[in-house]
Amino acid sequence: MKLFLSVFLMLCVSVASAADKAAVPQMASVKGEVLEVKDVSSYSYLRLKTKDGETWAAVSKTPVKKGAQVTIENPMVMNNFVSKALNKTFDKVIFGNLAGSAGSMAGAGKAAEAVDVKVPKAIGSDARTVAEIVTKRADLKDKTVLVRGKVVKYNEAVMGKNWVHLRDGSGTASDNSNDLLVTTKDHVAIGDIVVAKGVVHTDKDFGAGYAYKVLIEGATVHK
Predict the structure, then answer these.
(1) Closest CA to 209 of 57, 80, 25
(2) φ, ψ at 17 (rounded to 5°)
(3) What angle do CA 13, 145, 181 make, to 5 degrees?
(4) Backbone angles phi and psi of 140, in degrees to 5
(5) CA–CA distances in Å: residue 74 to residues 111, 155, 197, 199, 220
């Protein structure tokens, strides 16, 4: 999301933070004119002039010029966000992906949906497909599973973890059984084929409607 949902929704590598609550994206994207740019080690903070007024957004560090018209995809709102790198507390920051950038998860998500994802099932007694984890979540709750899939969406450093959406070709979009969210400290890239091992959690609510029927948390992820 760039489902971010990104989710798609912080402690960051370059911005150790505490937030009162996270919200799911309330719109498909946020568009605006760049009024100010503040770069830190991993992020570019952009003060935007939008149709709804001024707001701050944070994207993966990238060259952005003042006056540019930009679109933030997979927006995720963080309230009372503290950036130690900037020594600043933001009333609100919109985390997301800059449209057209190499890390744009929205574009990558669309590309993944346009082609068939076919990934062999992981090997082992704990191995499950994406669809199995989603549809059998009640039986797998609090159990460790192993799943292999293709990274179709990726949000880095949100609430102290990285948010990875995996697909392996199993399941269907009609019942959302074709996509699985995994949270991890490990870093991946969109398009990677990875194996994730972690604990299945169900009915997880992070507040402000940012809830999931099933996800794998605290996973180790490797190629």
Answers:
(1) 25
(2) -140, 160
(3) 45
(4) -95, 0
(5) 15, 9, 26, 26, 24
The CA distances from residue 222 to 91, 112, 161, 178, in Å, are 36, 20, 15, 20
- Strands 193-205 and 144-158 come out as antiparallel
Q: Do 22 and 205 meet the contact criterion of CB atoms below 8 Å apart?
A: no
Total Cβ atoms within 10 A of residue 114: 7
pTM score, two decimals? 0.57
Name the maximum alpha-carbon separation found in the chain. 55
pLDDT tens per residue across span 169-214: 999 988 889 999 999 999 998 889 999 999 999 998 765 445 789 9
Residue indicated by tokens 């009162």: 20
DSSP category for residue 127: B
Report helix, strand or coil for 13. coil
Give 96-121 pLDDT, tens digit per residue.
Answer: 878 765 444 333 333 344 346 899 99
* Residue pair 162/183 in contact by the 8 Å Cβ criterion: yes
Residues 166, 172, 173, 174: is their CA dihedral positive or negative? negative
CA neighbor of 159 nearest in space, from 20, 47, 30: 20
**Rounded CA gap, 58 and 103, in Å?**
13
Backbone angles phi and psi of 130, in degrees to 5: -60, -45
